[in-house]
Design brief:
Helix content is about 55%, strand content about 0%. The chain has helices at about 1-5, 10-20, 35-55.
Length: about 60
């Protein structure tokens, strides 16, 4: 996600696909335990930055 954010206007297509991530009711993670919470927050933060960079809102 972080790398996509640095691409600037080229992220519009990815932003369209990720636009509903913040409304997803389950944790976004690959790890269990406390790392799952940290990873979920990291993913959601990166998606928010991606959407902001593309001119969309989370």
């Amino acid at each position: 996600m972080g790398h996509l954010t640095r691409l600037g206007p080229a992220v519009r297509r990815a932003a369209h696909l990720l636009g509903e991530v913040s409304a997803h009711d389950q944790r976004l993670r690959t790890n269990g335990g406390w790392r799952g919470f940290v990873e979920d927050e990291s993913i959601r933060t990166a998606v928010g930055k991606l959407l902001s960079a593309s001119g969309r809102s989370a």
